[in-house]
Automatic annotation (TrEMBL):
<feature type="binding site">
    <location>
        <begin position="42"/>
        <end position="43"/>
    </location>
    <ligand>
        <name>substrate</name>
    </ligand>
</feature>
<comment type="pathway">
    <text>Cell wall biogenesis; peptidoglycan biosynthesis.</text>
</comment>
<dbReference type="InterPro" id="IPR018187">
    <property type="entry name" value="Asp/Glu_racemase_AS_1"/>
</dbReference>
<feature type="active site" description="Proton donor/acceptor">
    <location>
        <position position="188"/>
    </location>
</feature>
<dbReference type="Pfam" id="PF01177">
    <property type="entry name" value="Asp_Glu_race"/>
</dbReference>
<feature type="active site" description="Proton donor/acceptor">
    <location>
        <position position="74"/>
    </location>
</feature>
<protein>
    <recommendedName>
        <fullName>Glutamate racemase</fullName>
        <ecNumber>5.1.1.3</ecNumber>
    </recommendedName>
</protein>
<keyword id="KW-0133">Cell shape</keyword>
<dbReference type="InterPro" id="IPR001920">
    <property type="entry name" value="Asp/Glu_race"/>
</dbReference>
<dbReference type="GO" id="GO:0071555">
    <property type="term" value="P:cell wall organization"/>
</dbReference>
<keyword id="KW-0413">Isomerase</keyword>
<keyword id="KW-0573">Peptidoglycan synthesis</keyword>
<feature type="binding site">
    <location>
        <begin position="10"/>
        <end position="11"/>
    </location>
    <ligand>
        <name>substrate</name>
    </ligand>
</feature>
<dbReference type="InterPro" id="IPR015942">
    <property type="entry name" value="Asp/Glu/hydantoin_racemase"/>
</dbReference>
<feature type="binding site">
    <location>
        <begin position="75"/>
        <end position="76"/>
    </location>
    <ligand>
        <name>substrate</name>
    </ligand>
</feature>
<feature type="binding site">
    <location>
        <begin position="189"/>
        <end position="190"/>
    </location>
    <ligand>
        <name>substrate</name>
    </ligand>
</feature>
<dbReference type="InterPro" id="IPR033134">
    <property type="entry name" value="Asp/Glu_racemase_AS_2"/>
</dbReference>
Amino acid sequence: MSAAPIGVFDSGLGGLSVLRALRAELPGEHFIYFADTGNAPYGERSDEFIAARSLEIARHLHDDHGAKALVVACNTATASAIHLIRQTYAHLPVVGVEPGLKPAIAASQTKRIGVLATRGTLASAKFRALHLSLANQASFQLQPCDGLADAIERGDTALVDELSERYVDALGTVGSGPGEVDTLVLGCTHYPLVMERFAQLAGPQVRLIETGAPVARHTRFVLEGAGLLAQQGPGELSLLTTGDLVALQAAAARWLARPQGS
């Protein structure tokens, strides 16, 4: 089983930001990346739809491709469906992602933190529980970013710029001064793909938090505990999609070649 692939999936291209971190952390592992582009974006879909798609993709990666572990590289799918995937595949290591509120608290000096995420993620019971558990440690400005993941998916640079500016502006004053938002949580795996735009808008004194590297480290920890780490490499990558495979291949060639955080 250690030579079997790790299945990684997202509604589209956003999970490539997590896959990039996984491949850096686990260069000997084989990965299968599934982009459900034909049904994206998940952030504006119902919980029932997301759960059904997530279970079907998990089944496909496990049954048809022999995945030894699954990484749900989508905040919305994690919030809506990871508990169902874990129930269905109790024998399988399953790792999800969630907005990095805890590392944001550790990084923030002003304890005012902006959270940029899809409306579906922010409305989920899983996120609400996380937020409530930390509400006494910092002030969180929650900003739904309607349309942004879809604009990134389509490569609409002008719309990405417009929406990014609108949503950062909606957080109020950002900076390092008292009462200012000094930390931004990128709570959708699409958003790190345009991290440089957020960095320009927020300025050099504002810390950006994304979860690719912590998820990759946790995946290593889980695989080690289960005795499933690959014994030799280098690893291979297969790409699957319900959308345009050529577009996914081009996006992977672009984003996976970039250093993490760039």
